[in-house]
Amino acid sequence: MNMVDNINKQQEEETAKYQGAEDNSPLIEFKGVTKRFGDTCVMDEMDLKMKAGDRLVIIGPSGSGKSTLLRVLMGLEKIDKGEIFFGSNPYITVDRKGRTRTDMSVRSKIGMVFQHYTLFPHLSVMSNLTLSPVKVRGMARSEAEDRAREYLARLGMEDKLYSYPGKLSGGQKQRVAIARALMLEPKLMLFDEVTSALDPEMVAEIEKVMLDLAKQKMAMMIVTHDMYFAKKIATESVFIAGGKVIEKCDPEIMFNEPKQERTRDFLDKVLHLK
Amino acid sequence: MNYTFDFSVLVGNFGPLIEGLQTTLLLALGANVLGLTVGFVVCLLAMAPFWILRLPAKMFIEFFRCTPVLIQIVWFFYCVPILFNVFLDPITMGIMALGLNLIAFNAEAYRAGIQAVPKEHHDACVALGLGAWHKTVYVIFPQALRNAIPVLMTNGITILQQSALVAIVAVADLMYAGKMLATNTYRPLEVFTAVALIYFFMSLPISQVVTFLERRQDASVER
């Protein structure tokens, strides 16, 4: 069994563990989460559950709080009210003084890929991938490098190991960013409009990588404006508007016969059905 | 103009100028070492989230940026020994006086360099679990340094030229050697022209490197 199979097997085992076999207990649960930027409320007492192994696609108009939701979950934004659970453990809470408390051991189980790649331009692809495993996780450099090679090979980038981000195309950069997040073996991956800055050919490239991850039952939360891709990859879909979850259902229902009028209006507009 | 230049007065008098040049280089080098290292620390303090660290660092920067370097040198040479009973050799005093000034300017250059690192890179550090130390050392500092290098080098050249001001407090640098030679030979025009050319040819290559680096950075600006 080669290292790629090993990594796949490990991930499947981990996912199964977090799925709790057949039990439908949530991997992530938002309970009454409120987030304000000044007077603007971008998450308004939001409740949301996501099961392990789910691929939850979040759609909604611009400014509806989709990206903020992911940023809150990654610990990049504080919250004003509510709590977030990871499995049965409190992950993000607000103490009596209104300060956000984050369980760092849980945060390390979440990986995130951003719209603008965010590769460190002064580091080679290899160093981008191995920096955190070596410095934060204490992994041996040789082991981290072997793992980086395997992930890049899996993403068809083995020849770019020692290239610098400035020499890569947008699609290649985003593949490296995905590999970098996967290096930490997250239990949940967050994708924040990862194809928005790419041209159509490169979008297909990244979508293929994400569909491959989906096959390995990687739990994902995806914010996208690409409704066709959303439908293809989602096991669960959520429509958010005005900082609230308007509708959460199976993607087949969401994209074919949404129950809520606001969801219908939004999808009609973006899918040009009107 | 009926003045006849006679550069022959310099022949045989290069010895004192070379000695002065060595002192000038020592002053500039010492001040730059202080400015590059302590400047980064002051910058971090000035950007610290706690006002108790931020306030003194900011006051230090503003004091040295907002007062003439000549006054700083004079104050340092005459007031420090009186106030603190500290007597150091003139070159060390010169390095410290120029160095303090450069620390303030370099701290600002580093701050601009850090602020030019895209915010998304800070987010990526969080997503990768990098703590404050690892983030600063492996992600922010290398990029901030790269962004700040042209300004740091410009500040370095400026302090090389401003080091001439220590001649006023009798530090035997290139300017002081020139002043002495001009007095002895009664040929200030020739001597100060030669001194100016020495400063010019020391600064020119560095300034060319700065131009080259700025051009290279403009070409490679990308996220």
From TrEMBL, chain B:
Keyword Protein biosynthesis included in the entry's annotation: no
Pfam families named among the record's database cross-references: BPD_transp_1
Protein name in the entry: Amino acid ABC transporter permease
This protein's UniProt keywords: Amino-acid transport, Cell membrane, Membrane, Transmembrane, Transmembrane helix, Transport
Membrane topology qualifier: Multi-pass membrane protein
Naturally occurring in which organism (per UniProt): Halomonas heilongjiangensis
Subcellular location: Cell inner membrane; Cell membrane
Entry similarity comment: Belongs to the binding-protein-dependent transport system permease family. HisMQ subfamily.
Domain ABC transmembrane type-1, residue spans: 21-210
Transmembrane segments: 25-51, 63-84, 90-110, 151-171, 191-213
One GO-annotated biological process of the protein: amino acid transport
